[in-house]
């Protein structure tokens, strides 16, 4: 399991090549093993948490 929390800036999070625009303060949940990437349009702060079980 992974979560991503956007703090500031402007970025697009991709999950399995599908773009997900994250608004400031928003969260995104990812299943384990999901391919993901990030594109920053400007400086941004993002917290990614990975839970190993």
Please describe what this structure looks like.
The protein has 53 residues and is mainly β. The chain has one domain (2-50). Helices cover 0% and strands 58% of the residues. The chain is built from no helices and six strands. The termini are close together. The model has no long low-confidence stretch (mean pLDDT 87).
Name the features:
53 residues, mainly beta, 3-stranded antiparallel β-sheet
Domain module count: 1
Mean pLDDT: 87
The helix tally amounts to 0
Q: Unreliable stretches, pLDDT < 50, 5 or more residues?
A: none
Shape: globular
Query: How helix-rich are the residues, as a percent range?
Result: under 10%
